[in-house]
């Protein structure tokens, strides 16, 4: 199903919090390479610094990214497009390759409560632990959260 069909019926509200998940084509683990992961992390910071979003938490897993943010002045689809386009171009340039870097589309979820916010932050930060990449929260170098961890 095309990305535009998946977006049908969805709304994007400035000031609301979303979790966006996007996956590398073929689930290739590009972000096992710290330099590749740094490109993604820099893009996440840049989108926040430019005022498109206010990032709350993220994790760059070997083959996908989970990112929680509050929309500031752009619709969700524009933020996702900016992120995927800028990182895809930079990563393809770095790896001297062409073609799609990310799978088409993305998964998004609008958060509706403070409890949901905390649960999603813990889910995002717990990804490396559940994947067996690290032993505990806070050890994974490619994760970030606005708030201190209270593990």
Automatic annotation (TrEMBL):
Q: Could you tell me which InterPro entries the record lists for this protein?
A: RAYT_transposase (IPR052715), Transposase_17 (IPR002686), Transposase_17_sf (IPR036515)
Q: Which residues form the Transposase IS200-like domain?
A: 13-127
What's a Pfam family this protein contains? Y1_Tnp
Q: Which SUPFAM superfamilies match?
A: Transposase IS200-like
Do you know which PANTHER family this protein is assigned to? REP-ASSOCIATED TYROSINE TRANSPOSASE (PTHR36966:SF1)
Q: What is this protein called?
A: Transposase
């Amino acid at each position: 199903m095309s990305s535009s069909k998946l977006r049908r019926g969805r709304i994007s509200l400035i000031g609301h919090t979303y979790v966006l998940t996007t996956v590398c084509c073929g689930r290739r683990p590009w972000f096992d390479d710290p330099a590749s992961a740094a490109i993604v992390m820099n893009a996440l910071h840049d989108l926040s610094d430019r005022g498109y979003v206010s990032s709350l938490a993220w994790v760059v897993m070997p083959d996908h990214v989970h990112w929680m943010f509050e929309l500031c002045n752009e619709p969700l689809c524009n933020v996702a497009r900016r992120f995927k386009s800028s990182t895809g171009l930079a990563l393809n340039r770095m790896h001297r390759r062409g073609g799609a870097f990310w799978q088409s589309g993305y998964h998004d979820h609008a958060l509706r409560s403070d409890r949901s916010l905390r649960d999603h932050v813990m889910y995002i930060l717990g990804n490396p632990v559940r994947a067996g990449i690290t032993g505990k929260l806070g050890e994974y170098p490619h994760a970030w959260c606005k708030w201190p961890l209270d593990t």
